[in-house]
Amino acid sequence: MQDGEFSSPVFVSVGTAAPGRCLVEIGSVRQALIALDRHGVGGFRIDDPLWQVTSDRLARAMQDPTLNNVEEAREAFRCLALAFA
Fold first, then answer.
1. Element of type H or E holding 42
2. What does the DSSP 8-state code read for residue 39?
3. How many structural domains does the chain have?
4. How would you write the pLDDT of the chain (85 residues) with one tens digit per residue?
5. d(CA 17, CA 19)
6. Does pTM surpass 0.70?
7. By the 8 A CB rule, do 51 and 59 touch?
8. Which of 34, 37, 38, 41 is the most buried (most CB within 10 A)?
């Protein structure tokens, strides 16, 4: 497993240029950050504690990509994606 790669992917629904949603496979910390910041996973609800925890854990996993940090980030991202699906 490469640095920042999740043990198993998280599937999230993101908006597309065309009307509708698209299911995307997120397999790394970098991909999760892109989904959070560019594609609105979590609805850009930066005031929500779950969004804040997810953002913090993803940032920590980017800076220190230990297995534990990466998997904590994955779980936080998964919970956020489910909460705002």
1. none
2. S
3. 1
4. 567 999 999 999 876 655 667 788 999 999 999 988 887 787 767 788 999 999 999 999 999 999 999 999 999 999 998 887 7
5. 7
6. yes
7. no
8. 41
Q: Are 84 and 41 in contact (CB under 8 A)?
A: yes
60, two tokens: 């920590």
Domain of residue 58, residue span: 5-83
Here the tokens at position 48 are 């929500």
Structure tokens belonging to residue 37: 């910041």
Enter the tokens of residue 41.
């996973």
Torsion sign across C-alpha atoms 67, 32, 37, 41 = negative
Residue 13: C-alpha distances to residues 1, 8, 10, 36, 73 (Å): 25, 17, 10, 11, 18
